[in-house]
Please model this.
Amino acid sequence: MLKYIRITLSLLIVTYLLYPDSSRSEPIKHEISYPDGNGPFPAVITLHTSGDFYVTKKWIKNFSSKAWTNAGYVVYAPDFFTRHGLTPKTRMETFSTYRVKIERELSEIVQLAKNNPKVHHKNIFAVGFSNGGFWASFLAGTEKITAGASHYGVWKGNMGRKITNPYPMKYFSEKSSPMLALHGEDDGTQKMLFVEDAWDRIKNNEGKLATHVYPGTDHAWDSKIDGK
Model:
């Protein structure tokens, strides 16, 4: 019997070494930038669009201008597309097929920030753009950060004419962290009809939501679409 137990334990150890538990895998790919000084600093989690991580870094002015580090924030920029093979064409799977996995992965990024001695662990924020706005809502709605902001964020995570996917609204409750939603009145990607419906649902859930609508403005108003 003892011999059998030893053999079994040996096989388990070999199996673990060859096929490590995926739950112990490395965090998703991310970049960290620091302001000058020793800290501890507040931190901001920046969340990319459906264009993907690298396109967002190139075209969104706040990414390319180093606005956050210049303002004194540590910046965590996770890439939540690459691990799952997501592309602009398969972007809607972000909110369905891979939603739970991305929830876990972004939560790990927040925990990394909280454990970083150069970060003030009670001052961690998130800013999301379009697709990333959905995930800023997740982080704020589930109290993982101090506050969040959604720039022209995804409030309707499905392709139908009605809101059938309850997220990101379902993340919010009276316990949620504050959330700021900025949206263009003429947004043709996330139309105000659905956006206002989503905002009403959050307020009905007693979520802490502040909103601002820019008149005559479409989606991605802060993008450098001219390539300059």
Notes: Residues 2-18 form the longest helix (17 residues). Strands lie at 30-33, 41-47, 74-78, 119-129, 147-151, 179-184, 209-214.
